[in-house]
Input
Amino acid sequence: MPEGHTLFALARDLHEAFAGSHPEVTSPQGKFADGAAELTGRELVSATSRGKHLLVEFSGERWLHVHLGLIGTFTVDEHEWTAEVPVVGQVRLRLRTPEHVADLRGPNLCTVITPEEVDAVLARLGPDPLRPGADPDVAWTRIHRSSRSIAELLMDQSVLAGVGNVYRSEVLFRHRLSPFTEGKDLKRASWRLVWDDLVRLLPLGVTTGRIVTVEDQVLDVEAALGRGEVPRLTERSSSVYKQAGMPCPACGSRVRTQVVAGRNLFWCGRCQRRR
Ligand SMILES: [Zn+2]
Output
């Protein structure tokens, strides 16, 4: 599933390509024909994300609300204005201007909503570590009263917006936190470590298009960015995510897996004991 960094980068790309234009909006697949008819020809004012939600403002107080879900994709490409752009697969929504085309496929949600409904969507979401000024204490008030595990709470978008299954497993490992610590037993200092780390890691995901969580790679990427270079990542890697049965990089113990909050959690039972 795309995590918050993917949506942040997507909103940025859509904004750069379409803000201020009046795209033709269509639904080649037909399932979004009514919504497309409502949006086409309007000015696309801005595109933003909050957690895993994409919100695109059009003139006349119309907002496009998209959630990609598990398998959705939204591609943004340049094209020659004279060329026909073939429709590949089930395209729910296409935005097109003389310079750009964006195709949405397989979303969990694609709908036109009002400003009031946008407010309701935002009110249901916890703070997003990618947004400047996001308040980690808002998440903490929900965490420290909860008897659910931190592994479950990190996946709850009303607690924290944007973190998915990969960042969850990896950030808990990075701080040697037991994923089964109940929210009410988690130390506030531990929560701040997790939050501050997500604030550090998620922008690297936006910049590189990869989830970077292994410390050596994190340092390499940060150093490259510091030199003004585009970081090059040779291969995807993780410490515990999808490493079930493999040796823990810290202690050599076997990495474990178990379904928590509907998705496979990965952790090291020997290293991750902190609360
Ligand atoms: Zn270990």
Remarks:
- The domain at 136-268 is CATH 1.10.8.50 (Helicase, Ruva Protein; domain 3).
